[in-house]
Known about the structure:
Residues 432-439, 570-576, 578-599 and 604-616 have low confidence and may be disordered. The chain folds into four domains: 2-192 and 395-413, Chloramphenicol Acetyltransferase; 251-384, Chloramphenicol acetyltransferase-like domain (Chloramphenicol Acetyltransferase); 467-542 and 637-706 and 816-907 and 923-951, 3-Layer(bba) Sandwich (FAD/NAD(P)-binding domain); 557-631 and 709-813, D-Amino Acid Oxidase, Chain A, domain 2, CATH 3.30.9. It is elongated, with a radius of gyration of 38 Å. By secondary structure, the protein is α+β, with helices and mostly antiparallel strands. The chain contains 27 helices and 35 strands. Residues 682-861 form the FAD-binding domain. GO terms for molecular function: acyltransferase activity; FAD binding; oxidoreductase activity. InterPro entries: CAT-like_dom_sf, FAD-bd, FAD/NAD-bd_sf, FAD_monoxygenase, Tri101-like_N.
Amino acid sequence: MAHTQDILGQLPLLQSYTHAILCFQLASNASPPMDLEPAVQRLLTLFPILAGQVIKTGASPTSSGAYQVVPYPVRPSPLIRYVDHTSDPQVPSYNSLRTAHFPFHQMPSTLFSPPHPVFPIPYPDTAPAPVLALQANLLHGGFLLTLAAQHNIIDASGIFQIASLLARLTRGELIPQAEITEGNLDRRNLIPLLEDHQPLRHDYREYLPSCMPTKIPPNLTALFPTFQWAYFHLSRRAVEAIYAETTTGPPPSSSSQHTPVKITPNDALTAFIWQRLTLTRLHHSPSPLSATSSVSKISRAMDLRRTLHLTPAYLGHMIRTVTLRLPLGEITALPLATLAARLREQVAELRTMEAVRDYATFLARQPDKSKIAYSGGEFHPATDFSCSSIAHVDFERLSLGDGARCEGGRRPGGGVLPGVCYIGPAGDWYDSGGAEGSRQKGIEVLMCLDGWEMEGLREDERWREWTIEIAIIGSGLIGTLLALGLLNIPASTKATSTTLHIKIYEQSSTPHELGAGIGFTTCARKCMSLMDPRIADCVARVATLNGEPEASTPDYCMRFVDGFRTYTGGDCWGMTAKNEDEGGNGVDIRGVGSDRIKDQYEHSKEYEDGGSDEEEGRIHISGKVYKLYAGPRGFEGCHRGQFLEEVMKLMPDGVVECSKRVEGYELLPSGRIQLSFCDGGRVECDLVLACDGIKSLLRNRLFPQHQPQYTHQFAFRGLVPMSTAISKLGRYRALRQHMHCGPRAHVLHFPVAKQQLMNVVAFVQDASDWTHPGMTAPAKKSEVVDAFKEWGPFVRAVIDLLPEQLDKWAVFDTFDSPVPKYAEGRVALVGDAAHASSPHHGAGAGMGVEDALALVTALQKARDDVDRGVEVSGALEAAVKAYSRVRYDRSQWLVRSSREVGWTYEWMNEDIGANMDRAFADIKERSHRVWYFDVEAMVAEVERQYRWFLWN
């Protein structure tokens, strides 16, 4: 095997092993590949060099000797080492490692690799040194196949060629003769050296530093205790963006010849990493560095196969390093394209046949090669940087014949190697399981850096700038809560995670919320807490509960009452209506009470003010009061404006941009969305979420045939000082929510502003069309007094409390013309923009809060998948489709039920009429469907539907 000697592999610094771990996931019913031995036997027969051992001959005080491959006297058996870790509780399962993305610290070479040190740690001269060693590690759910190749004989490209050969042999494929021939080439004369009389054309003095250790110390970790390894993931989108930055515009020129150079993606990535790391060092180094006098040297591993007209089938060591030195300030100031061009220039200069022959001759003429610095001179971890790349490896081609698919690769954990970086393809663990050929996992960068360098890079904006830009239209309640929920999505633990950049565009000059009172159930508050617990805290700060302000047992009930008729009789559970319904028929409700249902009712005489309700001037409710328990903390009411003001305090600066009325949008050829504004401005984004309410412009653009319709109902609204209300109605009734039902109208009142005000809303049917340009119109108290003049005394007393000047609010909804879906492409409708309902369930805002949580859930999944390499547009479209599918039926039911329960309040339901027992049963059933909603099940269903849309 004398012909196996490699001139480029003769450096004693390489007396170590290159390791590669291949990761294979197994189906639950699959067996691990225990029979790799025949394929390995066939491999060693085809390529005898792989069956040999490495020896060093001719070493002397003045010569480092030569590395050669010789046959083993007796070939080791078995050829592959099997280690079963399934019974070791300290070893994680395959899926646990996969979920964690196979972190470096959980992949120790002592556990998962053959017993040969990982480069650059040398092995002793006396130790057996097989050219190739293999170990199969069996785990629960998968296995790891580790290949270790002696580094003087085989470089990184060679070890992945061996993996490819082995995989094909397990699949029963024939290896082409050309590959066999090239893998067994005589290595001695591949590079023709210069004649003895020919001088070297390059200056190699930097390769012979005055102080050069003969071998790497066996424990670098002890010398550099604060250094650590970590993986940084760059999504495909990030890689494309970095490369585009170096290739757009005029071609960058060589610094010396001013000729264009062709930058490769590898050049762009290396330049980007070097530049960001240098900037981190300048800003964060514990020992101050100078931008002008401090210099950084980059060393890149360059594969010379192409220069020598070889292919990857050549198994030998065919690597040399390329170096470039620049001041730190210049590295950080240069455009990325220029810096990448400088790197490419160095590669082009040293990749010529002339340069390769010159370098090989320099190595051959040095008798003691232990004095040669492999990386081109002294290496200073505080400033220098070394980079190698295997980004060309296609792991899918390394799958085995028994169906075990190779998901990716890892370098086993070992000692530190300060300032070193390995670039490689990201594994399938960054992909969520799409079809073959559709994976877009991106790149992984493994770096060994000091702790402060690692933290600095993680905080670097460019490392984290790969953003999904989301435009929210409208800074009303739902738009604001949605933005806060998205902003509160936990940051990924990956150093280069995709971030969500949220921007709210509000057409008014300041964020504001129309309307007066608003209520939130336990369900809505739970959704808030899941998005951001601080939102629910805001509700608690401004909400007003039923009952006494300082009560030890708050009143969590809603109350419904016949507000039209007056009842007589001493028995509160059996009374006769005094007045008649609209048809002139007396309504007898005697005998409807029983012990079984008494806890659902109360009577004014029994409960009013603890028995002190006989004060002169007080107006009391006659008849049965139906109590409906609304869950813990009840139906918390507050003023919309106060709540919005409170939650806006949580909003970071710069998120909301006011006076930006959207005029339209278009889909750009790039796939992004361009929003245009009435002021002439334009912005691009990846996703548009329309929270612009019932008059949504985006809904009009998406579905022009589906517009909200007037329900032929309007509401008089007014706020009454609580002291005034108490003086007229009594404390008990004034401080508690009540719904007064009656023919073609109903009145609602409840405390707001921490029991300082009573909000009154009086709904009236309207046979006419709404002709006002806006949704509100001025009104006088006399109008509402006239509307309720035939009602019972308590309702008339409530109406009498209203101020003289009022507004009346038209009730519009989407009941008559619902949109067919809530998303089209990457534009989604949210809240009232999607499903505006009448207010009779008091759940329109709560339904919008549920929408917000569904979107936050889906978009967090999309963000995570973009990190794994899924295309941005596909992930976002899947997210909004999942949102639409999950939210459509429930929210459309609310629109319909809100209309129908309004009819129940107003005795317009033909099956119920004026029967308050039946009315209460209907109200209760519908209300429970609104309130007792399984939020966790919705979240799970959103995730499931997102996954379905993403891969189908």
